[in-house]
From TrEMBL:
Domain called Fibronectin type-III: residue spans: 62-154
Source organism per UniProt: Tetraselmis chuii
Protein's name in the database: Fibronectin type-III domain-containing protein
Entries under Pfam families matching the protein: fn3
Residue spans crossing the bilayer: none
InterPro entries with a match to the protein in the record: FN3_dom, FN3_sf, Ig-like_fold
Length: 154
């Protein structure tokens, strides 16, 4: 049989890496001989309970979210909104600010306080209003909810 020898030239001080399956092979050079003479193999594995870890990450993310709830009570000239503060660091919340925008581009703060429910009155019937809530923490940092739109009844 024939024997083959493969000769590779390597760049000085270069390190070569390749994945094969779940292993990472690192070839490291010998500085004096200008050849590859050290191999390092790292094996990667996924955790056994990957779905459990994903669910825990979702729960953690929900704890850090400020959520304006979908269950607003809408009248012809009133809207009552409720929001859920984040459970993480909720004791550090100094106040909430409720912001309202109209479809004409007017944006204003309509409430500031410790409430998690607020009823707005004096609104126009059959109009869309967009709201978001800002939680202000005792150190001046803050967290916004996603904005949501609601319609008054006609």
């Amino acid at each position: 049989g024939q024997s083959y020898t493969t000769i590779y030239t390597c760049k000085p001080l270069a390190c070569y890496a390749s994945f094969y399956g779940n292993k990472l092979y690192l070839l490291k050079p010998n500085r004096e001989a200008n050849k590859l003479d050290e191999i390092e193999i790292l094996e990667f594995a996924l955790p056994d309970d990957i779905e459990g870890l994903k669910a825990a990450k979702k729960r953690d993310a929900a704890q850090e979210r400020l959520e304006l709830l979908d269950n607003a009570t809408c009248g012809s000239n009133t809207i009552e909104l409720t929001w859920r503060p984040p459970t993480k660091n909720s004791d550090r919340i100094d106040r909430f600010k409720l912001m309202m925008a109209t479809t004409t581009g007017v944006v204003k703060e309509v409430m500031q306080g410790k409430y998690t429910t607020f009823r707005l009155s004096g609104l126009r019937p059959n109009q869309e209003y967009i709201f978001c809530v800002k939680a202000v923490f005792d150190d001046g940092s803050f967290l916004w909810s996603d904005s949501k739109s609601f319609f008054t009844k006609s």
